Amino acid sequence: MRIFSLRSLSGFALALALATTGGCTLTGSGHLRVPLIVVEEAPPPPPRQEVAVARPDYIWINGYQRWDGGHYVWQEGRYERERPGYAYAPGRWQRQGHGHVWIEGTWRASSRGRGNGHGRRH
After folding, report:
1. Is the pTM for the entire model greater than 0.85?
2. How far is CA 9 from CA 4, 15, 119, in A?
3. In whole angstroms, what is the distance from residue 2 CA to residue 35 CA?
4. How far is residue 114's CA from residue 109's CA, in Å, rounded to a whole number?
5. C-alpha angle 80/76/41, rounded to 5°?
């Protein structure tokens, strides 16, 4: 297994600047980058079937098999509050080269107004 961690050089430079400039206040903006995990092993086992109880104004996000250093571990599903004007695009394992990459689920602007994408509305 290879783990690629995408870290911004500008983040290091900012930390260095803060450490060397006592009393200064810096502001800025940027993007949060999450580690990219490439698993060069067998594909993940199929997802488990979960039963979700209806909850008003919430969607159910299915669980998935996450990679935990040397094997897959089941990460249980969860409820998340609906976001008006957004649809949830679920996470998934995607084949890449000789391995598999986990693509994290995300909320995307929806043209349908009050949508929830592939999450199940409850």
Report:
1. no
2. 15, 10, 35
3. 11
4. 10
5. 125
DSSP assignments along the chain, one per residue: -EEE----HHHHHHHHHHHHSTT----------PPEEEE-SSPPPPPPP------TTEEEE--EEEE-SSSEEEE--EEEE--TTEEEE--EEEEETTEEEEE--EEEE-TTSS--TTSEE-
Kind plus residue range of the DSSP H or E element containing 80: strand 78-81
Dihedral of the CA atoms 19, 22, 26, 30 (nearest 10)?
10
**Where exactly are the structural domains of the chain?**
2-121
CA-to-CA distance for 116 and 118, rounded, in angstroms? 6
Residue 68 structure tokens: 């935990």
pLDDT tens track for 94-119: 999 888 999 999 999 988 654 444 55
Distance CA(19)–CA(87), nearest Å, equals 41
In whole angstroms, what is the distance from residue 103 CA to residue 58 CA? 22
